[in-house]
Input
Amino acid sequence: MKKKILLATTGSPASFGAARVAFEMAKRYDAELLLFHVAGVPKKGFSYQEVNDVRSQETVQVDDDYMAWVEEELKNTYAKQLEECKNARIILATGLPHREILRAARDEDVDMIIMGAHSGDSSDIYSKGYPGSTLQRVAKAAKCPVMTVHRESASYMGGFSHIVFATDFSKQSESAFKYALSMAKEFDCEMTLFHALDITSKVLAQSDIEDKLITLRKRLRDVYGPKMGDFKNFEVDVWEGNPYVEIVKIARERMADLIVLAHNTRELDPEQARMGSTLEQVLLRANCPVVSVNRPDKV
Amino acid sequence: MAKKIMVVDDDKEITSYLTQLFKDNGYETVEANDGSEAHDIVAKEKPDLITLDLEMPNEWGPRFYRKLTQNPELKKIPIIVISGLPSNQYAIQKAVASLTKPFDRDELMKIVKQTIG
Output
């Protein structure tokens, strides 16, 4: 099946990691790549065609010349990648970034959105602890999986070979599991089904912890084993600790190219679901791309 | 007996430069032009050390390393990453060193000598 990937980019260094993964995926898996950029947010109730330029933050009159200049800038920024990726299109828009990204993803019926964790503004704050608001809103509402590449960390080198699927056994995790399994089958990857036992707010005897680990490993096998079908290249593991730390650690230990998890764990209604703190921390800290999946569409 | 170093890089100039450098310093060498070619050669030659590029046409360095570590006979071979990619030190974290192209030959030789003598 032909895949379509939407790379939402500001063209700034904060999105270079995401761009590298998106171009490499498009090339390796023969997907169509839409290079999508929101040129700025229109001022004055959207009635004036005047935007804050993404890079300079200056107010600019939107006309054909300006948009042509923005497109040229993007072409220059990604010149090398565009040269190697023949099936790419640049799409420009003005408006609120998350709304335009979602609109484009819907209109173009894309299979995946790839973006950085934040735009690169105030990077000191964002790079330490919080994903940007655009990602939060896109991940919450997107019907397709959203891949986040936060750090330019030389991860995802030349294709997927190991996927870590992290679960808390929630309903949302079912869609994430289906997606992880279909990726593992499609790209012939190894897969680790992982659960992190949260012991951060409790004092437990070691034998209690180990009993829980045994029980949870069994639960992983019982819940997901029957759904694996003829796919046998997987293992299950449970580590105790702080969940986001353990997910990042097992991905590093297994040299995973991809982490898949649901983006929220408690809220059943996707409209109400905010991005969970575990996912927030995983996608800022992981050494590989992270895909959040909440909905069964496009899985 | 001379220790053997395997050079894995798709850039012919880099492989010939490294090969010559290692030979001049008394090591045996073998070459591979990408990760998939390197799989067969590493099993046959059992080198004492590997210098590994990350970005190569067919099989990239990290994927080659992943398969290497799945073979108990080969997984302890020390790796030196030599790559021009940004943040290359995170790609193979168990590598003995990660050097960025263009690299310093003296630094490389120092690391090689410290690692395999």
